[in-house]
Amino acid sequence: MARFIGVGSLLVSVAVGEAPVALRDVRFAYGEREILKGVDLSVQRGQVVAILGGSGCGKTTLLRLIGGHLRAGSGKVEVSGHDMAVLRRGELYELRRRMGMLFQFGALFTDLTVFENVAFPLREHTDLPPELVHDLVLMKLHAVGLRGAEHLRTAELSGGMARRVALARTVALDPMLILYDEPFAGLDPISLGVIGQLIRRLNDALGASSIVVTHDVHESMAIVDYIYFVSDGRIVAEGTPEQIRASEDPFVCQFVNARADGPVPFHYPAPPYAESLFGRGAA
Amino acid sequence: MSGPVAVARRLGRIVSDGVWRFGFAARFLVMLLAHSGQSLMRLHLTVREIYFSGVLSLLIIVVSGLFVGMVLGLQGYETLQRFGSGDALGVLVALSLVRELGPVVAGLLFASRAGSAVTAEIGLMKATEQLDAMDMMAVNPIARVVAPRFWGGVISMPLLAAIFSAMGVLGGWLIGVVFIGVDEGAFWSQMQAAVDFREDVVNGVIKSVVFGVAVSLIAVFEGYDCTPTAEGVSRAITRTIVSSALAILALDFVLTSFMFRGVS
Ligand SMILES: Nc1ncnc2c1ncn2[C@@H]1O[C@H](COP(=O)(O)OP(=O)(O)OP(=O)(O)O)[C@@H](O)[C@H]1O
Ligand SMILES: [Mg+2]
Fold first, then answer.
1. pLDDT by residue (tens digit) across A175-201?
2. Domains and CATH numbers, chain A
3. Residue-wise over A235-268: b if at least 16 C-beta within 10 A, else e?
């Protein structure tokens, strides 16, 4: 009974149009090191939103906060109107059944075949007959171009193939909120375009919302509705792709034109270079 | 920083880390038991682990059991012979195996063959974010991955210990009766008369169950708790084997002192 109420309230909250994801002044630190220093962002229903930012700026951390893997130090993370800080495990799982997350490194189950990996969420959460599971899995694999690879073991996949299998597994249960951590990494230009379109089409077909974390400015510009730029733990720029293209913001210009110099630091925080190299000798 | 202070500080740190880890392990055990329903209801999950922990350990258990029994036959006969009671060889072999060597040696072998594999598997799943991915799919990794491996180990261990003891008796018979020429009738009938079901067999089974719980718990805990890197996993495997061995020997002493007080 409790479970029914849980599902019911989730459906209601989706129906009344709560923002699928809303972050308000979210801060997060790993130990002493502050990674997020007050992030505000929101995703509307039906939107595909990109989060762009340099390596190590906290994008994966942001997704883990939204997925409920990490708890924010302060501020509020809301998913479908639920405050992630107060959710109990059962409620969190109820919410996650309607979420999909593509991990940065795929995280495929190494003891299962490609087919079994994609079938895993279906088997765990539904009582569908085997034939139906089979058909659903093949449909998902076909969408990522790997229907022929169903019998391979995960060790036999290339990096890009593994990522596409992981993508198929992520959307196996037709989630309402899909989080993609670098879906384009390790893909050739052809697959990259196809996967980009797939993310868009899936989102529209399911009426879902998606967050795409990526470095790929141009591919994301082509498919998303809204873009956030993260740097140094804050949102430093945001806008629709048109606004971003027209933007004069030095930050955005640097990112879009891929220049090493500019407000985005290429280096992990460190003492001055000369000091590291010669510091000890000089002292 | 002065010497004694540094030493005291490090000592305090070791102690508090240990206490913290122990508390974490206790909480882990509670969660493990609370989420065990699935591994019993979806029995194929546990059966698969019994295959990996139990069936795949059979070879080493059978071979070691045979050799340990053969050595017991040689050594035992040598000693018994001095007192002119070589016929009691069957009793000696059976009692040593059923009471002590069966559970203990099988436990040590089980820890290094199956326990280490379980730790490695869970540790690698953690290091490659497979556990996180599962959690993100609203599937509890403790229920789906950890509990079946724990129960698979708990079920396998007593069976392996029993097989070890049986092979050991066979090894003793091979040496004693076939090679040395102890009277076969005396070998078996004295064994049958001297080995008590309640005092010896049941107590041996209790030991092997306790060792099975200890080794399985250590193995799944070390895997689940490891630092998620290649180095972390390898250190966790080492810890599994070392802690299991110490746990088995310490528990064996405690259990023996309770069990065989009145006998002797
Ligand atoms: N488990 C952890 N413990 C401590 N620090 C961490 C941990 N995970 C990440 N960090 C730190 O947090 C920062 C942000 O990490 P995160 O993985 O979110 O970056 P990212 O934006 O996803 O980078 P990339 O684009 O390279 O994947 C990094 O500087 C990293 O050093
Ligand atoms: Mg990342």
1. 999 999 988 887 888 888 888 888 998
2. 2-247 (3.40.50.300)
3. bbbbbebeebeebebeebebbbeeeeeebbeeee
| B128 to A110: CB separation less than 8 angstroms, yes or no | yes
Minimum-distance CB partner of B132 among A69, A93, A120: A69
Q: Which atom of ligand 1 is nearest to the CA of A53?
A: 21
Contact A210, A44 (CB under 8 A): no
**Domain contains B22:** no
Give the ipTM of the model, two decimals please: 0.81
Ligand nearest to the CA of A64: 1
B234: containing domain: 35-259
Check CB contact of A235 with chain B, cutoff 8 Å.
no
For residues A71 and A53, what is the distance between their CA atoms, to the nearest angstrom? Answer: 21
Take atom 3 of ligand 1 and give the residue whose Cα is closest: A30
Number of domains in chain B: 1
Facing A121 at nearest CB: one of B121, B125, B137: B137
CA angle A10, A15, A16 (to 5 degrees): 105
Q: Is A101's CB within 8 Å of B130's CB?
A: no
Instruction: Look up residue B181 and give its two tokens.
Output: 């020429």
For residue B166, tell me if it sits in a domain.
yes
In a domain, B4, yes or no: no
Say yes or no for a CB contact (<8 Å) between A93 and B132: no
Predicted structure pTM score:
0.85
> In this predicted model, what pLDDT tens digit does every residue of A128-146 receive, in sequence order?
899 999 999 999 899 888 8
Is residue B16 one of the residues assigned to a domain? Answer: no
